[in-house]
Amino acid sequence: MLLFISVSVLPNNPKISTTTKPSVFTIGHPSEPVTTLLPAKCGRPVAEDKIINGAPAPVGAYPWIAALGYTEPGRSKPSFKCAGAIINSKYVLTAAHCLDPNELGRKTLSVIHLGDYDLSTKRDCVETRLGQKCSPPHIVAGVEDTISHPDYNTRGKSSDDVALIRLNLTLDFDRSSAAIEPVCLPPNGFNFKAFAGNRAPVATGWGLTEHGNNSNILLRVNVPIADDALCRERYKRNFVGNQLCIGGTKEGFDTCSGDSGGPLVMTAQHGPPFYQVGIVSFGPFPCGLNRFPGVYTNVADYRNWIINNMRP
C-alpha cells in the first residue's frame, strides 16, 4: 500500500515575460564568475512544509513541480504520466524515459502544467477559517524543444535518465509573487550522502495510489535512503553509477508509476532552499515493496550537462 501524503499547492498568479536575463553563478574562485542560466533565487517554498505524523502540508510547499501531459490519437484530453521540476524561466528537468518514443508509443508530450495541484480542476480551492481560498489558474505551457542525455539507456535500463524540456514561454519569477519557483540544482562538489546524513528526502508527484489509480491531487512522501548494495542486488547491471538508491526500507513509502521524472528534493540541515538531488527513474512494480528500493538519477552528476544544454 502506498502511503503518500497529500499537499495543497495554491500559488498566486504568475506573470509571463518574453525576455530573460541570465544570472551570475560563481564556480570555483569567486573572482572568476561564470554566467549561466541558473536563477539567482531558487528552492524557496511559498509555505513551509511541516509534516507531522501524516498531517497535510500547507499551500505552496513545492512550487517547482510540473505535470507533464500527453495526448494520443482519438483522445482530446491529455493524460498526465510524468512529472518534472522547474529549474529556470525556460526549462523543466525530467527523466529521459518520459520523452522516449519507445516508452510513449502513440503518446506525444503536449502540455506542461505549472503551479498546479489538482489536475482535475482549473482552480484549486481550500477551506480556511475565513472561508474558501482559491488560487489563480495554473499555467499551461507548450513544448518548444526537448533534449535527452545522449547516453540514456546505453549502460543499463534507464541509465543516464535525464532530460530537459524547453517551454514555449518565459516565466518571470520576480513578478509572480512566488506563484511558481525554480528548484535549486546541487552545487559543484555536492556529495548526496554527506549532505543528507540520516535524513530522508522528499518526493512529489501525481502517481499511482494504493487504489491503483493515478491521483489528481499532488502527493508527497518521505523516502529513506537505502544502501547501494541493495539496489545492486535487486537490479544487477541496471544499477550503474550516477544513480541513487532510495526507499524500500519501509513498506508502502515509495514513488510509483506516474511519478516518473519528478523531483527528489531536500534542504540543508537548517532548512530551505530546496535542492533537487534526484529524478524518479525506475523501481519495482507493484510499488512500495519492502527491500525493493526505487532508483533515481543523481542530479549532481549531471549538473554540467544540464547547464551546457540550456540556452537563453
Topology:
Layout: E1 5-6, E2 15-17, E3 23-26, E4 33-36, E5 65-72, E6 75-86, E7 91-94, H1 101-104, E8 108-114, E9 125-128, E10 131-134, E11 139-141, E12 143-148, E13 163-167, E14 170-172, H2 192-196, E15 202-205, E16 219-222, H3 228-235, E17 243-246, E18 263-268, E19 271-282, E20 294-298, H4 303-308
Antiparallel strand pairs: 1-16, 2-14, 3-4, 5-6, 5-8, 6-7, 7-13, 8-11, 9-10, 12-13, 15-16, 15-18, 17-20, 18-19, 19-20
Family: Belongs to the peptidase S1 family. CLIP subfamily.
Keywords: Calcium, Disulfide bond, Glycoprotein, Hydrolase, Metal-binding, Protease, Serine protease, Signal
Pfam family, one: Trypsin
Walk me through the structure.
By secondary structure, this protein is mostly beta strands. The chain contains four helices and 20 strands. The strands form five sheets. A seven-stranded antiparallel sheet has the order 1-16-15-18-19-20-17. A hairpin with a 2-residue loop joins strand 18 and strand 19 (271-282). Residues 1-35, 50-58 and 208-212 have low confidence and may be disordered.
